[in-house]
Amino acid sequence: MPKIFEYFGFIFFFYSNEHEPIHVHVINNGRESVFEILMDNGVLKSIRMRTAGNMPPLDNKDASIAEAFVKKYYKNIVEKWINFFIYKKRIRSTKITKKL
What we know:
Layout: E1 3-7, E2 10-13, E3 23-28, E4 31-40, E5 43-51, H1 60-86, E6 94-96
């Protein structure tokens, strides 16, 4: 379960056996949601949130923060996804300490 970002209590990560579309799991305060990154020819088209597993989803405020984060850092998320799942490289977690 590679952690890719930490952001003010939010943990962004992949499970090691993921599937497409490219997506990132986000946990905060005992809740988890998944944000799918939908692209067309390398251009971001939309970000879609869905529930994950047995945990309750992020509340509305946290979901908004997480979605804004994914919109800002989607290129980094996609790059880490490709490096981890396609090229089988180790990826490093990045701690973001500057507010969006």
